[in-house]
Amino acid sequence: MTAVTEITTPAGAGRAAEAAPVTMAGALNRALRDALAADPDVHLLGEDIGALGGVFRVTDGLAAAFGEERVSDTPLAEAGILGTAVGMAMYGLRPVVEMQFDAFAYPAFEQLVSHVAKMRNRTRGALPMPLTIRIPYGGGIGGVEHHSDASEAYYTHTPGLHVVAPATVPDAYALLRAAIASDDPVVFLEPKRLYWSKGLLEPSPGPAVLGRAAVRRPGTSATLITYGPSLPVCLEAAEAATAEGWDLEVVDLRTLVPFDDETVCASVRRTGRAVVVHEAQGFSGFGAEIAARITERCFHHLAAPVLRVTGLDIPYPPPMLERFHLPDVDRILDAVGRLQWEYDITEEQK
Amino acid sequence: MTAVTEITTPAGAGRAAEAAPVTMAGALNRALRDALAADPDVHLLGEDIGALGGVFRVTDGLAAAFGEERVSDTPLAEAGILGTAVGMAMYGLRPVVEMQFDAFAYPAFEQLVSHVAKMRNRTRGALPMPLTIRIPYGGGIGGVEHHSDASEAYYTHTPGLHVVAPATVPDAYALLRAAIASDDPVVFLEPKRLYWSKGLLEPSPGPAVLGRAAVRRPGTSATLITYGPSLPVCLEAAEAATAEGWDLEVVDLRTLVPFDDETVCASVRRTGRAVVVHEAQGFSGFGAEIAARITERCFHHLAAPVLRVTGLDIPYPPPMLERFHLPDVDRILDAVGRLQWEYDITEEQK
Amino acid sequence: MTVLHPPDVHAGAAALLPGPEPLSLIDRGGGTGDIAPSVLLDLHRHLVRGRRYNLQATALTKQGRLAVYPSTTGQEACQAGAVLALEERDWIFPTYRDTLALLVRGLDPVEVLTLLRGDWHSGYDPREHRVAPLCTPLATQAPHAVGLARAAALRGEDLVALAFIGDGGTSEGDFHEAVNFAAVYRVPVVFLVQNNGYAISVPLHKQTAAPSLAHKAVGYGVPGVLVDGNDAVAVHQAVRAAADRARAGGGPTLIEAVTYRLDAHTNADDATRYREAAEVEHWQGRDPVDRLEAHLRECGLLTEEAVARAGREAEELAAQLRSRLADDPAVDPMSLFEHVYARPTPQLLEQRAALAAELADVEEAR
Amino acid sequence: MTVLHPPDVHAGAAALLPGPEPLSLIDRGGGTGDIAPSVLLDLHRHLVRGRRYNLQATALTKQGRLAVYPSTTGQEACQAGAVLALEERDWIFPTYRDTLALLVRGLDPVEVLTLLRGDWHSGYDPREHRVAPLCTPLATQAPHAVGLARAAALRGEDLVALAFIGDGGTSEGDFHEAVNFAAVYRVPVVFLVQNNGYAISVPLHKQTAAPSLAHKAVGYGVPGVLVDGNDAVAVHQAVRAAADRARAGGGPTLIEAVTYRLDAHTNADDATRYREAAEVEHWQGRDPVDRLEAHLRECGLLTEEAVARAGREAEELAAQLRSRLADDPAVDPMSLFEHVYARPTPQLLEQRAALAAELADVEEAR
Ligand SMILES: Cc1ncc(C[n+]2csc(CCOP(=O)(O)OP(=O)(O)O)c2C)c(N)n1
Ligand SMILES: Cc1ncc(C[n+]2csc(CCOP(=O)(O)OP(=O)(O)O)c2C)c(N)n1
Ligand SMILES: [Mg+2]
Ligand SMILES: [Mg+2]
Description:
The complex is a heterotetramer, with 2 copies of chain A and 2 copies of chain C. Helices cover 32% and strands 18% of the residues of chain A. Chain A has helices at residues 24-38, 62-66, 78-90, 109-116, 119-122, 152-156, 169-181, 231-241, 261-271, 286-298, 322-325, 329-337; strands at residues 22-23, 42-46, 71-73, 94-98, 132-137, 162-164, 186-191, 198-199, 214-217, 222-226, 248-252, 255-257, 274-281, 307-311. Chain A is globular, with a radius of gyration of 20 Å. Chain A is of the alpha/beta class. In chain A, helix 1 runs parallel beside helix 7, helix 3 runs parallel beside helix 4 (109-116) and helix 9 packs across helix 10 (286-298). By secondary structure, chain C is of the alpha/beta class. In chain C, helix 7 runs parallel beside helix 8 (173-185). In chain C, the strands form 2 sheets. In chain C, strands 1-2-3-7-6 form a 5-stranded parallel β-sheet, with helices on both faces. A two-stranded antiparallel ribbon of chain C has the order 4-5. Chain C has 2 domains: 9-331, 3-Layer(aba) Sandwich (Rossmann fold); 332-366. Chain C contains 14 helices and 7 strands. Chains in contact: A-B, A-C, A-D, B-C, B-D, C-D. Chain A binds chain D through residues 1, 47-48, 50-53, 55, 73-77, 79-80, 103-104, 106-107, 142-147, 283, 312-315, 317-321, 324-325, 330-331, and chain D through 67-68, 96, 115-121, 136-138, 168-169, 171-174, 199-202, 206-208, 268, 270, 273-274, 328-329, 331, 333, 335-337, 340, 345, 347-348, 351, 355, 358. The structure holds thiamine diphosphate (2 copies) and magnesium ion (2 copies). One thiamine diphosphate sits between chains D (97, 136-138, 166-169, 196, 198-200, 261, 265) and A (47, 76, 100, 104, 107). One magnesium ion (MG) binds at residues 166-168, 196, 198-199 of chain D.
């Protein structure tokens, strides 16, 4: 049911000899452990996060190490979990909530939109919400229905939330530490199919700065913009593209909100062409925002419209069909091929 | 607390002498009444829709006319309401649900996303969901917090749903009839601040076809693309723009899903410039989808990037500040002014 | 080993059920329980003040000085009886209707109305007063009370959280989840259901088929208490007992206070559409202010002077409201961008700059 | 006039409470109630078949033939006892775990597994079998049962809906809202909570502090029934009584069947992380299949031949599963675009054309 994807995380690539690689699930576990150790106000709550260590084992061993009060199993009710966390945050704690799967965060939608996202604003800063909401995110692990949604667009559209999606092992650690340290609520999207990908955590990446994208592969022909589970696919596509003579730059957003316009636009201005890649259904998806804002900011640098390679506009498919839904190397290359490479020499066509 | 906006609805404009104008709330009431009369499978359910006739009086008199079984007050629980409606639809009825205000639809989000939107697909067509979910939508009526959200983007991003937003009185009637007649679930967004706007219903507009946009004002300089409560603002802006020498076309989407690419693109290809206008916060909003798809389809016809005039990326403001949040004529004209009118004569700048 | 439903717990179920009749003291010659006379006079003062506050706020709404006002006329005993039963360090989680509870807690009467006036969402510092923001999405504040009480308990602090909720609100999933969490974590929360007979237009019998709302308690393993919500003394006593229990580690209690909303749902509502005048009259006969006053007089606790003083104080409050709400407050559009995040995003900074430029243009055009 | 909590209803509350001990027939010399011998033999047959089905499906999962399988081993009495108590026209609203209930209803054993095999979300026509799709988001199917039962009642049809739910699922808001709606509308729904002691790893005492889950019923004004979920006869009798009551216009019932999940949560779960072997052994001693078999033998109802026949039939079923699930099913990627809407949107048509072109390319490249 679970595909193990091994990718070498670019950030740690140079140090492969120094230490043993860990999985992304392991890196997240270490981030939680370090956060719990560093700050007594950090509390974890969620379904099955105690003795079981979470269905993905991200909280493995934490209840044993920090006690059931710091790492507590909750009754089975997501609005109750998030609402309880809101109350804890009102008192000054720093709750870290686990939603068991992406689609099972929906029962908490009202608490998220009407309280978590707004509490600081409505109380003029008196009640900040230093909450982290961890959500195993996306598909590709053969999960049956309701276990593979990519729902970032619901969150990115909600003012007051930060939205973070790591794609590499060191980022998983660094961004989760940053999310927990943030005084604002962070929806933290953990790419399920990268849970077992491996990378290095030594030397420790430390907490990241939220809101900074990373260029994972420099290139000159066009820019692929992506995040979370689609990063390895884009890197693979970029490698494959060299055979066609394209040298693709790959930008990993890391943080969807706040958005790093600077890095993204600098890249697109340089390359003049861009393709946005994400798993979620494309219509009204986050890729639309990326494409729209690049166009607003870089119009005269664009040789072609910003294209999108996304999931289909259908309910997430059953396991045996999910590969037809998810963006793959071929679809990305196909989109790159449609970036009007003839443009430079046929300017008069415009 | 409620501002009464009088607009002459373009569709009925020519027939002003023939019959008395009705309000949009009245038109919606008539649509519900006609649907109830036409089809015994139509059932209304929601909070306070019976004796009270709904907080906006859209269901006024319907319980008295059709009985409490057809038009029934529910206990106060939105997930329960929508979930019950799902069960009724499974049995072949055609439920029409009222959510009292936009933000109070959030408790039903899981039922909407995981069941309403998916049921037909997961059962290979065996269980269609001919449901209509009426949601008083948007701001501008001085509502206190949680009473003015514009949440269309959550719905447009959910495959399996249709999303409809009328802007005129005859459309309110025609689109609601079409929504109820649709064999698919429709999220029907009723612009609160147009509830008391007036227009003509004679001759009866009959059910509309979902998925067709309307050109509300023909023009040549640029296209304003909008829907729901922002239509009157755009029409006003277009009138004001003539003073600056701009002849703006105004496209009213009417249906957000399915999207009428044809009408929109035809207009933009003609004018070469476009501004998208909506109330909701802009980031990751539906305007991004509109801008992105226009750019994908009409890139070489565009003299300037598609711009967006939207609500700010903040929680909906309190009554006394909402006018600073909502798109107004000035902001639209300002955006039109930034559509690079110098472009035609300074092509080499590109 | 997990034993499903050990028999001893099961046997204790009966103790969690409410009595057959609402707890009432005033009408039953119940005297004043063990409540100190000074507290009783305080109760009286707050009821009188509260009634006047409701009247004044409703009047101001008609004059357009408030965007909307949900009155608690008829429910003053619940509001004052409950809040006075708490310690200052205890937290209150009000619904949008419970403005009076805030007044009793000692908040500034105009800051209490900020939400309803429309200049901001919440007008006071919740931490300073231990009062959560007035909550509009129904029942959503109930889990907050649970979380806050749990946080305090984890820190070893002696604190009770009181969550108000309406009869309609008990139908929401959030209510269910909150009481369950509170019971499982055994946190010091008092859930006070003000059953005022209606959720806007929907009467109780369309809201629930339960024998009483207090009967829901046993399903969570917490005590259910039924109290006459128009008897300030009884409400006070019930809430104090529940708070004491909570403080002593006994966990949450669910109290149903049976009361009545004498006014319409809000100024925007037309209650004649869904209820009979006779019903309203019946409940006017059980007016909580009148009843307390009569009872305290009977007990010889209330002097004419005290009555007059309470009246004067209430008039002063009303006058203060009228004058302080006479003009529109200063609102700063630039404040829209504050407190969306701890630090504004680059995107918000852009939007802030754009609005500033717009406002400068407008200023210039003058 | 609205009377809040009329005393007569209030007095009736006691009748809604469950008894102190789960209803059990088998161990108490309860005989077989008024259940016909043929039904008892049917029950036995289904229990034997069901156990074998669980074993086989679990084995197939280990071989990668199913994506995941949540076993009902230990809960077969609930599944068969409940479904056999219904009429063919009654509807079943299962959770993701209740595959056996579908089998008992007569669905094709492979179609039952479609979701878990992963070739589509739901493998059968719900209307044909009066079985809603296996439901993964917990408790969300409960309001569907209410809506469907209400729709049928409005049409004057005589139909009962049975909603399965887990102990964990009762904590969700949707459960609360569903039971409340059912009670208020007085619809013919039977809510059957299979309390198997765990929600994945979370034991009941971390899920609720209630004396029993059946004690939740009174809070909605419906009867709460506690039954031994490992006694097929008792479950059958309790569900039939509730269905009869519902059919007669008596409204919903909430039944808690106390049972135990002998296997792990699913094949992907490691139950040793959160429960003791001794606990599992204890419950193995109360195996529902063994108990029914022993009981029916004791009552002289079960011949050796019937036992052998049931065993053979179960083996045939297992063999059928093995052979029919041996190969991957044919899946058509183009079917992804079917049934998203009644008619595909223009946008979907574009995407369909693109996928068709992709597939044609791949075909060509071969
Ligand atoms: C989640 C949600 N749904 C709907 C509403 C709209 N609404 C506001 S007040 C109200 C009735 C509340 O009734 P009750 O809980 O009895 O409180 P009361 O007004 O009687 O104090 C409704 C339906 C809301 N505020 N929140
Ligand atoms: C809304 C929702 N939240 C979380 C989950 C993940 N999940 C699947 S099964 C399960 C435990 C269910 O426990 P219970 O209701 O007791 O049923 P059982 O598995 O014991 O049959 C959980 C938490 C889910 N399916 N749906
Ligand atoms: Mg009420
Ligand atoms: Mg269970």
